[in-house]
Amino acid sequence: MTKFPAAPRTRDVLEILAASRPSDLEPPHEPTSADAAAIAAAEPTPRAHAGKPRRSRITYKRVMVTIGIAFSAAAVAIALTLSAAPGAPAQSHPGKTAAASHPQPHKQMTARAVLLMAAANVRGGLAAGKYWRETMVAGVTVPGGTTAHPYDISLRTYGDRWNPRSAGRREWLVSQQLRTRPATEADAAQWRAAGSPAHWHSGKKPSSTLGGYPVEWTYPLAASTAAAPRSAEWQVSDGTVGFIEGDLAGLDAAHFRKLPTRPRLVAALLHRYALRAHCHYKGCSTVHQLIWSEALMLLQDPVSPQVRSATFKVMAGLPGVRLIGTMTDPLGRHGYAIAPGGVDPNAYPPDYNPTRIVLIDPASGTLLAIEYLGPMPRTVHCLAFDAANKCTASTYVGPSYRGQVDGYVAVLRAGWTNSSPTLPPSATWSSNDCCAGLPPLP
What we know:
The chain is an alpha+beta fold.
């Protein structure tokens, strides 16, 4: 079993703080004239996607709130959203789960110290390659039991995204719905008591209104303990390899190479993008919340180790950032759970306010996962609708408790490669002219 590394000595933390702190770590602010001039020279003008309408902040947030970016409703029966692994991860028995992922308090560390340690330990990789490859595993928890034996199931999908460095080549998304399994060991016990069912089906897709619920939760449930075959989608790339603000057009490799590396300038750059995306009515995400989301995107982009390090420092300087504790992600990897300041009032249904946490491994300067922690009311998953098209909740029953992992994206890989994707049989290919580059999780 992997042992979580011991917390760093207080002196180590203080040394990192002293070395990294001064003016670079002040909370993002309106750029000075000198900042603006430097950013104007480095920041590319986002390119519009020809013939593709720009998404609004509200629509984008609703689509992405649970687990990331919608790859394809057709590719997964439950319309999970994700990006994922370099190959399907090892499939465990449905009753087996990763180590407990509930956060545990840590008295010696702070969110700021964890993020600064990550900034100091960022590692490099290939500076360029034929493809920018991102692999992740995503999951969402939904009720799957009965009144007598309530339990939750974890619906998991993997995807392997290949964005070519050069425009005009095919970009690929290889995805697969993995084996459905009980969400925790306690759920597995109830699943076995209920007869160890291998299939779950319920609900129907609403004909019009979504009723304020995330898109992923309004699709019929169709899950199995058997994995589905792999499938692949492709489209001709316009050169997009990543995003800073997911509601704006993406950037190509040359643009990312021009990004500033100083934390102060990265903070000002993210602030500028946040202002472009910020809405101006009550209940909207704050600018700092958008900066946090866009910093997470930048950590998954093809940027230099210096930019990635600067991004961690910007996150450390945001107001309200807090350490939730140490925890393991659904793949069993250990890290520190950190949450941004405030709650995004526009991202969830009125009766559901999960904590969006980021799991960081400071020893390697790595973003491991992004998770949404409950409790999760039954009505969140609208897998059945009445004649008036209103949610009548799931036909299955599951528990709701503090610290429940409602949805997640576990990042396995993000880097340049000179390899080419290993594709499933061509009969499973489909063209997709939706969204060049597909933005990562906000």
